[in-house]
Amino acid sequence: MNDSHVAQTSGVLPVLLPLAERMTRAALRERAMGSPTLRLDSSHGVALVVAFLCGCGITQAQSQAADPSIFTTLWKWTPLLARGFVFNLAISFMAMAIGTIAGLFLGFAQISLLPPVKKGAFFATHFFRNAPWLVLLFYCMFLLPFQVTVLGVTIPIPDWTKATLGLALPVMANVSEIVRGAIQSIPTTQWEAAASLAFNRRQALWMIIFPQCIKRMLPPWMNLYAILTMATVLASIVGVNEMMTLTQRALSAESRPGLLLAFYSYVLLWFFLYCYPIARWTVRLEARYAVNQ
Amino acid sequence: MPEANSEPIVALRDVHQSFGDVEVLKGVSFGVAKGGVVCIIGPSGSGKSTLLRCINGLVPIKSGSIRVADFEVHNLHTDQEKIALRKEVSMVFQQYNLFPHKTALENVMMAPIYVLKEDPKEVRERAIALLTKVGLAAKQDAYPGELSGGQQQRVAIARSLAMRPEVMLFDEVTAALDPETVKEVLNTIRELAREGMTCILVTHEMRFARELADEVLFTDGGTIVESGRPAELFDHPRKDRTRAFLSQIL
Ligand SMILES: Nc1ncnc2c1ncn2[C@@H]1O[C@H](COP(=O)(O)OP(=O)(O)OP(=O)(O)O)[C@@H](O)[C@H]1O
Ligand SMILES: [Mg+2]
Fold first, then answer.
1. B192, part of any domain
2. How many domains is chain B built from?
3. What is the pLDDT of residues A177-186, one digit of tens each?
4. Distances A152 to A145, A148, A149, B62 between C-alpha atoms, Å
5. Does the beta-carbon distance from A197 to B116 stay under 8 Å?
6. Which residues line ligand 1 (CB under 6 A)?
7. In this structure, is residue A250 part of a structural domain?
8. ipTM above 0.85, yes or no
9. What would the mean pLDDT of B100-111 be, rounded to a whole number?
């Protein structure tokens, strides 16, 4: 790693060192990941639990004698919210699968030797990577038809499918960059060695270069998945029945204004519990591969 | 052993090569007889690696011609022709360039199986025999990261030999090794040369060059400044430039 200059400054500016060093590390890490990394740690969980308990406390304090306790209310709605959460996960799995497959193709196209393919893939990658996720979601919602007719058979396209496609687009673009970055991080001498053994470009890519990329791609890919999972709640804006939408429905059914904080931090807790292990695992993998390289 | 009168197996005629505006090879011509050993010496940046890469067809040339056996190296069109050339001439690199995700044995077996489409069983036997030859039979299941530099380089040599080449190119294959391990790699190359393999080596191991080479080429600035039998060139260099270079490294 290139933090030698950090070490050099240690004698001069000891006070700044921890911060400078941390920031350098973070910057290097994000560069390696190709996207902002989730840096969830247990303190975030503690903060969330505190917020949740505060929310519950406030609600409890505001409630009238006749109201059931906040925990009873949450418990009552939990099955419905859980169903919504499963839907979020389903969307995240499918968007990730579609985005990954499409992204692999796009990533390979980015290193094509044919200029039009390369340029087209570059443009598509950067277009979808830099477009706001919500805008892409809206585009998919409103530009895709609600049904298609293939060979006389009418197939409906439900909203959640469109939302999945909408989320798969930025995933695709990010995977494309992850693939391109990983391939280009393999020393060119590996290509050269393969060529001198008469492997053609395609064989070299599939048998020699790409297998070496997988380890490098895994941490940023998992990071992307965690980000995507959190982004699935965007689907509530376009009316998909996922956890966020159902939370809003629960809140309006209860019509107790004080419930807001408790419910939303409850939802956050669910997402935290799901994403935290992924984030930790990503960090572990990253550290392991960094040592091995 | 070199067959004195036979047509050279490698022949370069007025080869020019440049990277952008920088001319790296400025008209290089030489030939290597079948079974001959040619050592190339010269200062850093004089184009030695580039020359070997051109012979292997890894980089294009600007003008001139390179012939290896029956192949015009830069006039090959189909994949088959390119494969056929790479079967003739194989290259070993300074940094070994083994495939890190494959074991030593797999490194040796890959090209014959996937490129030459040979029978995996037969390739495996041959690969084990080659690893035995370079003294690494015990390490066949080790990954490159688990091998020392010298061991990796010997695996790389076995990997090249698995293509059954007629000509081997060695680009400073001992430069990254410590003196102890240099010997084991040189022994492997010596054995190959004695068996009649045509070898072109870029090397700074002068004693080795003196012992094995049929001809030594001194390159500087993209041309061959002087060439001759090792005893002549090392002991009685004709050109000042050669003398200056030799006095620095000997
Ligand atoms: N891919 C490249 N792009 C641009 N210039 C290059 C490239 N490869 C080599 N060169 C230049 O070509 C010249 C010759 O390089 P080459 O590697 O052949 O030298 P060399 O004799 O092998 O040197 P060394 O002893 O240091 O290995 C150098 O000036 C180098 O900067
Ligand atoms: Mg060199």
1. yes
2. 1
3. 999 999 999 9
4. 16, 9, 6, 60
5. no
6. B 19, 22, 24, 42, 44-50
7. yes
8. yes
9. 95
List, in sequence order, every beta strand (DSSP E) within B52-109. 63-68, 71-72, 89-92
Range of the domain at B26: 10-97+167-249
Q: What is the CATH number for B69?
A: 3.40.50.300
Q: Across the interface, which of B97, B101, B111 has its CB nearest the CB of A198? A: B111
Interface touch A212/B83, C-beta < 8 Å: no
**Domain boundaries, position A264:** 45-59+71-292
Evaluate whether residue B218 is within a structural domain: yes
Nearest atom within ligand 1 for CA of residue B20: 4
Q: Write the DSSP assignment of B209-229 as a string of letters.
A: HHHH-SEEEEEETTEEEEEE-
Whether residue A64 lies inside any domain: the answer is no
Facing A198 at nearest CB: one of B93, B99, B115:
B115
Q: Is position A17 within any domain?
A: no
Q: Which atom of ligand 1 is nearest to the CA of B48?
A: 21
Q: Does residue B238 lie within any of the structural domains?
A: yes
Q: Is residue A95 part of a domain?
A: yes
Q: Name which residue sits closest to atom 25 of ligand 1, judged by CA.
A: B44
Q: What is the pLDDT of residues A121-171, one digit of tens each?
A: 999 999 999 999 999 998 888 888 887 888 888 888 888 888 999 999 999
Q: Domain of A163: which CATH number?
A: 1.10.3720.10
Q: Which residues of A touch B90 (CB under 8 A)?
A: 196-197
Domain count, chain A: 1
Count the neighbouring beta carbons within 10 Å of the beta carbon of residue A202. 10
Beta-sheet strands, E only, within A57-156: 147-150, 153-156
Within 8 A by CB and 6+ apart from A49, the residues are: A269
